[in-house]
């Protein structure tokens, strides 16, 4: 029994010494060489501007535009990580919600909404005609963007690069990013027609979300 006890004691001392030695060596390597372990996916996650699925390259601006949901939840417009318009900011309304951004600096110039159901269409005409060159135009619909639409407004939006402005009607869903001096159709646009057969909500199509990277205007 005494021999077994002695052997157990020796085994315990040897095991402890091996553990301590390995622990010291590991910590010395960590101190001298640094920790080169691969981080987990969670610790390596990158926060993107406006919550985009991936980061934008240099000289590109990140944006996300979400239309309203029926007449219940208002739209939102985010640009370069800054929420320009949203229900939380209490600066959105029925109709068309529009934000203007300097295409070179990315600075927000103004944001307004225009009631396209019972408002004055001339206010929108004046606003669109006053947009300076080199300006990015971000648009989100809410509730009804089309009742007060006329040919002049449709043409002004088409000149900003819109493909669907000519079709926009009562309670349609629309999100769009264009520019004052765009010479072609914008690739940033989504449109859903109000149709009882396919509407997600009672009387309205589903909301639309548009995100992407728009190139900085360089002069």
TrEMBL record:
Primary subcellular site in the record, as a coarse category: secreted
PROSITE patterns to which the protein is assigned, alphabetical: GG_LECTIN (PS52031)
InterPro entries in the cross-refs: FAM3, ILEI/PANDER_dom, ILEI_FAM3C
Record-level Gene Ontology MF annotations: carbohydrate binding
Pfam family, one: ILEI
One GO cellular component term noted in the UniProt record for this chain: extracellular region
Keywords, in A-Z order: Disulfide bond, Lectin, Membrane, Secreted, Signal, Transmembrane, Transmembrane helix
Domain ILEI/PANDER, chain residue ranges per copy: 94-180
Transmembrane segments: 6-24
Localization: Secreted
Keyword Signal assigned: yes
Top-level division of the source organism's lineage: Eukaryota
Family of the protein in this entry: Belongs to the FAM3 family.
Name of the molecule in the record: ILEI/PANDER domain-containing protein
Taxonomic source organism: Sousa chinensis
């Amino acid at each position: 029994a005494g021999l077994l006890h002695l052997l157990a004691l020796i085994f315990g001392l040897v095991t402890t010494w091996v553990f301590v030695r390995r622990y010291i060596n590991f910590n010395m390597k960590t101190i001298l060489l640094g920790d080169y372990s691969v981080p987990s996916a969670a610790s390596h996650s990158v926060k993107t501007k406006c919550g985009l699925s991936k980061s934008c390259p240099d000289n590109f601006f990140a944006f996300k535009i979400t239309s309203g949901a029926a007449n219940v939840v208002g739209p939102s417009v985010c640009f370069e990580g800054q929420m320009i318009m949203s229900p939380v900011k209490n600066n959105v309304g029925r109709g068309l919600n529009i934000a203007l951004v300097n295409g070179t600096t990315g600075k927000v110039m103004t944001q307004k909404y225009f009631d396209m159901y019972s408002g004055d269409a001339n206010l929108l005409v004046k606003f669109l005609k006053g947009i300076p060159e080199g300006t990015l135009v971000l648009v989100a619909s809410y509730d009804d963007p089309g009742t007060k639409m006329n040919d002049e407004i449709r043409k002004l939006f088409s000149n900003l690069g819109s493909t669907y402005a000519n079709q926009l009607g009562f309670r349609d869903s629309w999100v769009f990013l264009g520019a004052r001096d765009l010479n072609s159709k914008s690739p940033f646009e989504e449109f859903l027609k109000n149709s009882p057969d396919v509407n997600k909500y009672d009387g309205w199509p589903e909301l639309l979300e548009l995100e992407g990277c728009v190139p900085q205007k360089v002069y």
